[in-house]
Amino acid sequence: MFKSSLRAFSTSKAARTLLERELYQGNSVVRFILNDKKVNTLSLAMINELFAELKAIDKIEKVRSVIIAHNGKSFSAGHELKELTTESGSDKHNEIFNTCGDMMNFIRNMKVPVIAEVNGTAAAAGLQLVASCDVVVAGKSSKFLVPGQKLGLFCSTPGIALVRAVPRKVAMDMLLTAQPIDSEAALRSGLVSRVVEDDQVKFEALNVAEQIGHFSRSVTALGKAFFYTQAELSTVDAYRYGSRVMVGNLKLKDCQEGISAFIGKRPADFEHTNDLVEEVKKN
């Protein structure tokens, strides 16, 4: 089992209401906890708070991974509907969806992996957040749904992340019927990475983070960036691009340290930098 050290971030009272912060594993794992004391709606305030924290965390070299968790029975019920009324106006609506989309894209582009820790219901934009994370650990009783049809508001933007995580027929079934799927169905469809007992979700998410933390931060960042880029390419172009990335990867000091350690049957001592080895010039 992982060893952890915990220290809460120092935040304002207002910020703590929406988002709690914890540090684990020698301050290398940041665990954000959605905490609006209701159903963790992704209000514009919540989105802005989480987005700002993610941008700040991605710049901290010591951080190896991020976990997004939640208090209460709901991971997130999606957007705050009170902000989507006609009275809010189109400018506010555009700001909400654009900022939310920017945050989802940023999660994919972060240097460190982001792990969703789900122990409840993830709906609409809440499911969008889950689907945008790199790894998803879910409790057995968790539910996932895109129920916009019931409100007359099709879950168009949540569907963007959903269809990139599950087969199209599964995504359309969920979007058209507004019916939930359970954690096992989510696992089978690829929306979820691991399913554990409800009381083990936090520990499993931290276990995933610990496993990631054993490896080079720079190589992990390179691998994550390549994974999402190549997925948008044709197979031919992906292999061509992949060959260049592999050759570049071999030039990293951390890569050569890992190879040397494996050959020498010793633990690798990664520097977690993008420093390159000096090429040997052939006569």
UniProtKB/TrEMBL annotation:
- The UniProt entry's coiled-coil ranges are none
Family annotation (InterPro entries): ClpP/crotonase-like_dom_sf (IPR029045), Enoyl-CoA_hydra/iso (IPR001753), Enoyl-CoA_hydra_C (IPR014748), Mitochondrial_ECH-domain (IPR052377)
What are the subcellular locations of this protein?
Answer: Mitochondrion
Recorded GO CC terms: mitochondrion
Keyword terms, alphabetized: Fatty acid metabolism, Lipid metabolism, Mitochondrion, Transit peptide
Superkingdom, taxonomy of origin: Eukaryota
Q: Which GO terms describe its biological process?
A: fatty acid metabolic process
Protein's job = May play a role in fatty acid biosynthesis and insulin sensitivity.
PANTHER family, alphabetized: ENOYL-COA HYDRATASE DOMAIN-CONTAINING PROTEIN 3, MITOCHONDRIAL (PTHR43602:SF1), PTHR43602
This chain belongs to the protein called Enoyl-CoA hydratase domain-containing protein 3, mitochondrial
Source organism (scientific name)? Caenorhabditis elegans
